[in-house]
Amino acid sequence: MNNKANRSRNTPNHGRLLPMLLAVIAVLLIALLAFFLTQGKSSGTEALDNLPNYTDVKGKIVVDGLKYEKQPHLGSESAKVKVIEFADFKCPACKNWTASYLDTFIKDYVDSGKVQFYFMNFAFIDRDSYLAASAGEAIYQQNNEKFWEYLHKLYESQGDESKIWATQKFILKFVKDNIAGIDQERFEQDLKNHTYMYDVKEDFKIAGAYGVNGTPKFMVNGVLLPDSSYEGLSAAIEAALNESP
């Protein structure tokens, strides 16, 4: 009987070990989950920290005209009609208008010498709208033609309007991979330093003062059109062309 009792005492107590093992596994899983959540939150915060706010832009903005001379442009300065498109790089309707009509518009009106066409930021959807706009300004300051290349390719790579996608990391890689012939180091510094955020905010303030409240919107010789249809734009241009000097 003593041997039997000794054997019982020396046999491992599996009933106690299993709960302890499960508790250890649970602690490890919780620790791993907390780590990944912290990493994700940290990465998201870092991305947001690199995005500009209009409230951070210093300098007084005075609306005293459309300032055509500061905008990316196409066409002859001697053209009778000046058309401005107000747009946001995150706007799906802007992407669709560009894909559907811009080439036709350039062929019909810009290349023919009838219209000088300008792009003006109305970055309003989210903070990465402002950053994408400031990237466009930085490219324009180096090369007007490269700005239009940036516009076409960025619309082609446009992300979900409801999500932050035009982050500093995304734009730096996008421009490096897609826009050749500019000083990439200068561009990177301009983007990181928000060098042209004043210009983006100035565009926004000017557009708002002239009645722009969404995108895309068009202005023909200083008159804001009620809709964004190609038919409406074409009719306004033809009317302006037929006006007496």
| Quantity of strands, as a count | 5
Provide the helix percentage.
55-70%
CATH superfamily of the largest domain: Glutaredoxin
**Assigned CATH architecture of the largest domain:** 3-Layer(aba) Sandwich
CATH class of the largest domain: Alpha Beta
Mean pLDDT across residues = 88
Strand % is 5-15%
In the CATH scheme, what's the topology name of the largest domain? Glutaredoxin
Widest sheet: strand order?
1-3-2-4-5
Tell me the distance between the termini: 122 Å
Low-confidence stretches: 1-11, 35-44
Structural class: alpha+beta
InterPro entries: Thioredoxin-like_fold, Thioredoxin-like_sf, Thioredoxin_domain
Family: Belongs to the thioredoxin family. DsbA subfamily.
Pfam families: Thioredoxin_4
Keywords: Disulfide bond, Isomerase, Oxidoreductase, Redox-active center, Signal
